[in-house]
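Discrete fold record:
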Amino acid sequence: MKIALFYQGFTVNQTAHQSHLVYRVYVPRNIKAVEIHFGYHPILENNKDSIRGAVRREGLDESIVQDDTELRNLLTMSVNDPNKYRGSHHFFCQEQVIEIGSDAATEGFWAGEIQEGYWEFIVNCHGVFSKEVHGQVEVFGVSNAKDDKEIPLSPLEEIELVQMKKQRQSDREQNYQVKKVELHAHTVHSDATQTTEQLLEQAEKEHIDWLAITDHNTTSALREAEEMQSVEKRVNLLHGIEYTTYDGHFLVHGDLEAITYDWTEISKTSIPNFLRKLKEKDVYLTIAHPFDTGNPFCTGCRWEYVLDNLAFVDAIEVWNGTNPHQSISNVDAYYKWTELLAQGYEIAASSGRDWHQLYPNEEIAYTYVLLPEETAAEKDVLAALSLGRTYCSIRPQIDFKLNDFYLLGDRIEVKTDELKISLRITDLLMGDEIRIYSDRSLLYQERVTTNRYWQKVLQLQNERYTLLRLEINNKRHERIAFTNPIYIDCY
């Protein structure tokens, strides 16, 4: 069967002379041949004003133009597959059909494997002498399949466990402080209504300690923010960007040069290598709102990339939006994260406000990061985020320790039959429910009966759990806070 992949009509004038029109088109899997229908008109130009103009542009004398002088517009087609040049046919022809298959190809082109990914179909404007030249490019994929419709996988499916355990170790002599962080914010440099200055001012009012401006495919607002940020301001800047592609969005935080690449390089086939290239620069990489509504309602918002593993992913944004209860997709993301934890993946969960407007009339979820008291550098924040030394909360503030010392994101080696959990939680309301989970099940739950802080030491039997984590629900059974795990190695 033949599948329509692309169609574009075009009009060029004499300014397009000796230029290239590049169309990048995604060719899906299971295509055995690509068929291109290419045409343009007119070929011959005999209008003397147009011809004299072309002669003058070349620095020639108009006297060479005679009554029978004609010029030929010459447009040709070249093709690149995702990895290499596949040829061109340089000849004058008003209507062309070009076929490139695995075993045979039209003259000027090379047969060979039809690879999935972005192909380039290039209109080469060797000569444009008419006032206007009109053309069209139409691309088809030829498939053996009877039906071109595929049922898409649910986000983050078919993932193999290949992620190595991260090095996790706390300094017993180090005191830690909790800092409020916003990891996902936008400005007018992309699709938000707030200027860079307005965003900084509001972040200051909300007592945010670290703010990441993550505009879509650009860091220009970050550069602007660094120029206007005064030393008196309390909020610190995290460098970030939201790669906003056709098949998924992901956040990258790190050094400005390390996070900034051409997003159009990303496709379903190139995504693993692109993520690998980013992680080689020691950045913090988060899959954003993976279960959000996608095409056609929110272009590219749903994660549709198929990854063999998550070795180059640090976190999943399981809470997206000002108040995460507004979207059922956040529930799906949360359960996918806990499923991955149970399978043995050491992957963090994060909250991102996806900040587009200044003044929401609702509760706000923030990410809280545990940082060494003695340091306040971006690298320390990124290291803490990567380890999951964080919790996310709309209201409660959490102090969670295991065996008196180990913090969120740590790994503890346990040789005893008991685990000691120390909890101190503030900003609770009557009816809130505290829950402690292992990798396998709910271990403990208690409903708060007064408006107060809650403090308790719990002794649990060591049943060879691989992790412990905490979450808090309000009286409406809405999740209002959760921690990343403390990991456990049992001997």
Remarks:
- The radius of gyration is 29 Å.
- The CA atoms of residues 8 and 137 lie 5 Å apart.
- The domain at 395-491 is CATH 2.60.40.770 (Immunoglobulin-like).
- DSSP finds seven helices and 28 strands in the chain.
